Amino acid sequence: MEIDIRHIAKLSRLRIDDSELSGYEKEMADIIAMVEAMPDISDELTVDPDNAMTLRSDEIEGKRIPRDEMLKNAPKTVAGCVVVPKTVE
Description:
Layout: H1 5-12, H2 21-36, H3 67-71, E1 77-78, E2 81-82
Antiparallel strand pairs: 1-2
């Protein structure tokens, strides 16, 4: 399988030196080989009633960052919102 690291880097907006390309190609090939070697999972959901999952509470931890401080990192903002390129016609 041919992996175009330059194209992936362009889509990711990453700058990769030519000297690093072969290393990234090998790493991507290893990742794809690992995923292809994974076993198929059956559609049946097996639940162990003796080991029920404990869900975490959905609470925000830590200090909150003010909106103005977050938006200063965005390339373009209008009326307190981040402007993104149109993707759907």
